[in-house]
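Sequence only, no structure available. Ideas?
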Amino acid sequence: MADIVIIGAGPAGMSAAIYARRAGMSTVIFEADMYGGQIVNTPEVENYPAIQKISGFDFAMNLYNQASDLGAEFRMEPVVAIEGDAETGFRVRSEYSTEEAKAVIIATGAKNRHIGIENEERLTGRGVSYCATCDGAFFKGKDVAVFGGGNTAVEDALYLANIVNKVYLIHRRNEFRAEKALVDQAVANDRIEIVTPKVVTALKGEDKLTAISLSDMADGRETMIDVDALFIAIGQVPAAAPFAAVVEQDNGYIVAGEDCKTSAPGIFVAGDGRTKNVRQLTTAASDGAVAALAACDFVRASR
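Reply:
I predicted one. Tokens follow.
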């Protein structure tokens, strides 16, 4: 039996593992995909205190090495359920194994939001992508589009502008939600064309994406742009569905305050999957520390 089982090896989960291990707790981390979470796809992190610039991959690798060196056990297995309770003990069940635990931290974060239009799933991997840093190199010298208005979308456009011929940066509003410094860079970049206020309404192509249809939010006028790729960056949806019967949720996000305590004693939540206003790398790490220390206190009290 582990003292603490952490579900999710993103920045929140691995930060929690570091604090749990430093407190002397036996710790097992389950991860469905790869450690690091979505920060792995960020080419440059420039807003983390005391680190002026680092790639998302390197940041994630540093976290992994730190947690691993401290003795945290990583299992690359998707968790399907949490069973039991604080009195009888928890059983975290993955597709391949079951681990008993005295406390659980859910740090599954969120996943990329889809537009939800025809052909989106069919053309994913054939021109439709949710990761510019993963797939951008496939479209060197081509014309591509990015759909979204936050930091991720603008960062994607700036990254792609170094690789492709032209980037259409499409947003449903005239004003972007992204940081002004990023938007200013995009506006000044000759390879980026700002397309607002428009939304993507259709995807064209048989074997691969060839064009996208746009609808003007002001007058409804439809236009079409020939592109070889569309990178979708319109936000995230929480990845906590397997735990809906265990902890209280609000629109898929696990309900918890700044103490990271859920409605179920002994179960804590950290990171983007928690109900909160700010979802940043710093807040994920902060949640990880808070949740881990709370879980450590819970384990000690139950001994």
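The chain has a mean pLDDT of 96.
Hope that gets you unstuck.
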